[in-house]
From TrEMBL, chain A:
The chain crosses the membrane at residues 21-42, 176-200, 212-235, 241-260, 305-328, 340-360, 367-386, 392-417. It is found in: Membrane. Its main location: membrane. The keyword Nucleotide-binding does not apply. GO terms for cellular component: membrane. Keywords: Membrane, Transmembrane, Transmembrane helix. Residues 19-414 form the ABC-2 type transporter transmembrane domain. It is a multi-pass membrane protein. This is ABC transporter permease.
From TrEMBL, chain B:
Signal peptide: none annotated. The keyword DNA repair does not apply. Belongs to the ABC transporter superfamily. Keywords: ATP-binding, Nodulation, Nucleotide-binding, Transport. InterPro entries: AAA+_ATPase, ABC_transporter-like_ATP-bd, ABC_transporter-like_CS, ABC_transporter_ATP-binding, DrrA1/2-like_C, P-loop_NTPase. One of its GO terms (molecular function) is ATP hydrolysis activity. Residues 3-230 form the ABC transporter domain. This is ABC transporter ATP-binding protein.
Length: 441, 311
């Protein structure tokens, strides 16, 4: 037992001390943080940059007086005609626009905004909105509707989507957040199973091609060496995740406390739906308004997600790394190993691809449910489903199946490994590997 | 006996690696395990190291059945050397020593001693990949013996060393042997065997075909061959007597002759001398004892044709 601890310790320390590990541990949270900060900054900047001076040429006549300047747009009624104003615009510096309101605006419902440079999306929205409002008021008046009554009626309904669970408990459901989380978990598990599984394989090939293997297994049992390596590298992975979790959390909290004043935060949050190009998921969140996002994030059971993330990651990692270990023992070098890593990771890759479409859109459908029970695909499929809410019995059955499979596969892998590591220069066919499995000790 | 190997047989899928092999290795001796490539030496060494188990037969270590408790009593230097390329020498030695059951404190102490002895203290913080091949071999040798095993198994220990370093390692092996360690050499180098080994066993085609003390084996393989150097008193002298011996080679420089003869059976060298002494003045007489290399080749090629018939 003491020896397996020594092996775990070596495998763990030799990797954790590596520069690449330290860089990754700090770089990933920093990257996400920088991404977020960058987005925050850009949104805020575009918000500020949106200030435009608009010269209004009102051919219709009733509009210019009703347009209201605000912090984004300031209107000046133009004294020139369109042609002269355009000329002035091309000669002037700074951001200026001409709003040309044609005579027939009421019937055509069209206006032109001419800008030196690109017109910002925010400006268009604001001007468009104001024009619509002026036309609307005019129509109301024409149809004899009392404006004051209209203005006094301000209904505001917030839809609070709730999900009812089997035991009658209600909780907030926000599909968008579940989708985002599901995708994030799929990417994280897929990459890490691949990354750390391949590290196990590479470590074994290194020992084999270095020929140190014979020295080590004259001191310890092959099974101890294999498990020591798998556990050691798995702990490296866990360390990395925990560090990421802590660092990212820490960075966000300190940065928010230190640099961001709440007003900015609100401004940016409010402008997010208007900013538009932020991807479907965040757009979907945005539509709910910032207050309700907060509510649904808070209602989300992150503890459950994190606990099952770790459980499924660990079990899935143990399963796949055992297969990677057997593959590593069967080859002499990494080039040869590549022919094995493809078929090994096929189920993972398939689930990974499916999780973006089928699983996320129909998390309780037959495909998603089956994939989340099959041990080779469940580490990804189940984790994608969990944010949408999965009955506990399903999660536990899937986890049990996964653990049982991992025990079986480890037993098989160890039998192949103990023979494979001592055989050199033989191309390992599947037939050969089955023969190794059947060897007596 | 430190190690008794009794009727060990080991089969692999397509061939028999060891066939009813029995070898006794006396305590405190240097033992040569000889045989051509693929004879089964590595299989036997792996069984002694408990890397694999025999299909049948029994191995006794100090009279007890060989088991996991003996792992810390054996040190093994495989023919294909290797260490972790990116690990520091000191860490590496410590790791291997601890795997053999040494405490960290004891291991560090011994690493210090060995590094002083081999003058490699300055390397401890270097990585293996930064060392020359000879230096790596030294490190690996230390890792093999650091836990002071009773039995040291060395597979081609001198390959990769320059003569100076080979000599340093040889001295260390002899020192360890003097301190009580039993040593098994697996080697093709017959000069090493003649120089260092007390006993040998020769394995060929998975069978043991010869074993015993080097002296006894050489004695047994003497074939009545002598080299005589003499000056003849007559001019056209010819050393010849078909009844007594057969001349194998003969050279002459002026009046000095060097002749190799093989005696007929039941003839003693004294008979030859008695016969010729009146005619020659004898300068030197040497019995030509076969070298281990000769015996090795003779035994291995002798068996081969038969085995080929089987195959």
């Amino acid at each position: 037992m003491h020896k397996i601890l020594l092996i775990i310790q070596r495998e763990y320390l030799s990797r954790v001390k590596k520069k690449s590990f330290i860089v990754m541990t700090f770089a990933v949270p920093l990257f996400f943080f920088a991404l977020y900060a960058g987005m925050f900054y850009l949104t805020k900047k575009s918000f500020k940059d949106a200030h435009t001076e608009v010269f209004v040429i009102d051919e219709q006549g009733e509009f210019a007086g009703k347009l209201q300047s605000n912090k984004n747009v300031s209107y000046t009624v133009s004294k020139l005609d369109l042609k002269a104003q355009k000329k002035q615009l091309t000669e002037s510096e700074g951001k200026q626009s001409i709003l040309y309101i044609p005579k027939d605006i009421l019937s055509s419902q069209k206006a032109e905004l001419i800008t030196s440079g690109k017109t910002s999306f925010v400006t268009q929205e604001i001007i468009g909105g104001q024009l619509e409002e002026i036309i609307r008021e005019k129509e109301y008046k024409a149809k004899g509707i009392d404006l004051q009554i209209i203005q006094s009626i301000k209904p505001k309904v917030a839809i609070d989507a709730k999900e009812i669970t089997a035991d009658g408990e209600e909780k907030n459901s926000n599909t968008a957040i579940a989708m985002g989380l599901g995708v994030a978990l799929a990417i994280l598990v897929y990459l890490s199973l691949f990354l750390y599984g391949a590290q196990v394989m590479r470590g074994i090939i290194e020992e084999k091609s270095n020929r140190i293997i014979e020295v080590i297994i004259s001191s310890v049992k092959p099974f101890q060496l294999m498990m020591g390596k798998i556990v050691g590298i798995g702990m490296v992975g866990l360390t990395q995740f925990v560090m990421w979790l802590l660092l990212t959390g820490g960075l966000f909290i300190t940065a928010t406390l230190l640099f961001v004043n709440p007003q900015d935060m609100q401004e940016v949050a409010a402008s997010q739906p208007a900013a538009g190009n932020m991807g479907t998921v965040s757009k979907a969140i945005g539509q709910g308004g910032s207050a309700s996002i907060l509510a649904s994030i808070q209602s989300f059971n992150f503890t459950e997600v994190i606990i099952f993330f770790f459980l499924f990651f660990i079990a899935g990692y143990l399963l796949y790394s055992a297969i990677f270990a057997a593959a590593g023992s069967a080859v002499d070098n990494e080039t040869e190993a590549n022919q094995f890593s493809m078929p090994i990771t096929m189920p993972l890759l398939l689930t990974y691809i499916l999780s973006f479409g089928v699983i996320i859109n129909d998390p309780n459908g037959p495909i998603a449910t089956w994939l989340s029970f099959i041990p080779f695909t469940s580490p990804i499929a189940m984790l994608v489903r969990i944010p949408f809410g999965v009955p506990m019995w399903q999660i536990l059955t899937s986890l049990t199946l996964l653990i049982l499979t991992f025990l079986l596969i480890t037993w098989v892998a160890a039998r192949i490994y103990r023979v494979g590591i001592l055989i050199y220069g033989k191309k390992a066919s599947l037939k050969e590997i089955i023969k190794w499995f059947n060897y007596k000790n | 006996m430190l190690l008794e190997i009794n009727h060990v047989t080991k089969d692999y899928a397509n061939h028999r690696a060891l066939d009813d092999v029995s070898i006794q290795i006396p305590k405190g001796k240097i033992f040569g395990l000889l045989g051509p490539n693929g004879a089964g030496k590595t299989s036997l060494i792996r069984i002694i190291n408990q890397i694999t188990a025999p299909d049948s037969g029994q191995i006794l270590f100090n009279g007890e059945a060989l088991g996991p408790q003996h792992i810390s009593q054996i040190g093994y230097l495989p023919e294909e050397r290797g260490l972790y390329k990116k690990m520091k020498i000191g860490d590496q030695m410590l790791y291997l020593a601890q795997l053999k059951g040494l405490s960290k404190k004891e291991a560090l102490h011994r690493i210090h001693d060995w590094c002083e002895r081999l003058d490699i203290s300055s390397w401890l913080d270097k990585k293996i990949e930064d060392l020359s091949k000879g230096m790596q071999q030294k490190v690996q040798f230390v890792a093999t013996v650091i836990h002071q095993p009773q039995l040291i198994i060395l597979d081609e220990p001198f390959s990769g060393f320059d003569p100076v370093n080979a000599n340093i390692i040889k001295e260390q092996i002899l020192r360890l042997n003097k301190e009580g360690a039993t040593i098994i050499f697996s080697t093709h180098r017959m000069e090493t065997v003649e120089e260092l080994c007390d006993n040998i066993a020769l394995i060929n085609r998975s069978k043991k075909i010869l074993d015993g003390s080097v002296q006894a084996i050489k004695k047994e393989y003497r074939n009545q061959t002598y080299k005589l150097e003499y000056t003849a008193t007559e001019d056209n002298f010819l050393l010849s007597n078909d009844a007594l011996f057969e001349v194998i080679t003969s050279t002459r420089v002026e009046k000095t002759y060097i002749t190799t003869i093989q005696l007929n059976s039941n003839i003693h060298i004294n008979d030859v001398l008695m016969h010729f002494v009146p005619q020659i003045q004898l300068n030197q007489l040497i019995e030509i004892v076969p070298s281990m290399a000769d015996i090795f080749i003779q035994k291995v090629t002798q068996v081969s044709p038969k085995a080929n018939d089987h195959a």
